[in-house]
Specification:
With 153 residues, this protein is mostly helical. Helix content is 56%, strand content 4%. The chain has helices at residues 14-18, 32-36, 45-53, 57-81, 91-96, 98-111, 118-122, 134-146, 149-152, and strands at residues 86-88, 125-127. A two-stranded parallel ribbon has the order 1-2. α3 packs across α4 and α4 crosses α6. It is globular, with a radius of gyration of 19 Å. Residues 1-12 and 17-21 have low confidence and may be disordered.
Length: 153
C-alpha cells in the first residue's frame, strides 16, 4: 500500500512522518532523523529535539503541527482575556530551547494577534527556567496579589 500524503486534517506523528505520509516517501530518508533512527519505530524525543535544533527541514515541519495548535491557543487566550506573556516550561520545549520559541513566535506572527504590533507579538512568548519552580512562583505571585497587605505583615 502506497503511503498517502497528509491532509490538513490528519494528526501528524513521528510514525506517520517516518512512513512518508507527511512529506513523501523519501522525506524521512533525507532527514537528519533517518541518520539517528533509520527505522522510524526507533524515533524518540531526543532525536527529534536534535534534528529541530539543527534546523532539519523535515523535523521542523513535523513540529509545526503542534506549534500551530499552541499558537492558535495563545491567540485565543490573548483575544479573550488579554494575557500578553506566556512562559514555556517543560522538557520538550526547553530541550529545543530558543528555536522552539522562535518557531512559535513566527507562527504567532503568521496568525496575528488582534491589536498587537509585531514587536508586541514578539514579546508574547518566553522560555522558562529548566526547573520545577515556575508554577510555584506564579501561584505565589497570584496569592500575594490577592492577599491584603495587612494580613501579610
Amino acid at each position: 500500500m502506497e503511503p498517502k500524503p497528509c491532509s490538513a486534517r490528519e494528526v501528524r506523528c513521528a510514525r506517520a512522518l517516518g512512513s512518508g505520509r507527511c512529506a513523501g516517501p523519501d522525506g524521512y530518508a533525507r532527514s537528519a532523523l533517518a541518520a539517528t533512527a533509520p527505522d522510524p519505530e526507533l524515533l524518540d524525543n531526543h532525536a527529534l529535539v536534535a534534528a529541530v535544533r539543527a534546523e532539519d527541514p523535515f523535523a521542523t515541519e513535523a513540529l509545526r503541527g503542534g506549534i500551530t495548535a499552541l499558537a492558535s491557543a495563545i491567540t485565543a487566550v490573548f483575544t479573550s482575556i488579554g494575557i500578553r506573556r506566556h512562559v514555556l516550561i517543560g522538557g520538550f520545549a526547553l530541550a529545543i530551547g530558543p528555536r522552539y520559541a522562535e518557531l512559535l513566535t513566527a507562527e504567532l506572527h503568521r496568525l496575528g494577534c488582534f491589536g498587537l504590533t509585531p514587536e508586541e507579538i514578539g514579546r508574547l512568548v518566553v522560555l522558562g527556567a529548566a526547573d520545577d519552580d515556575s508554577g510555584l512562583i506564579g501561584a505565589g505571585r497570584l496569592l500575594a496579589a490577592r492577599t491584603p497587605a495587612a494580613s501579610r505583615a
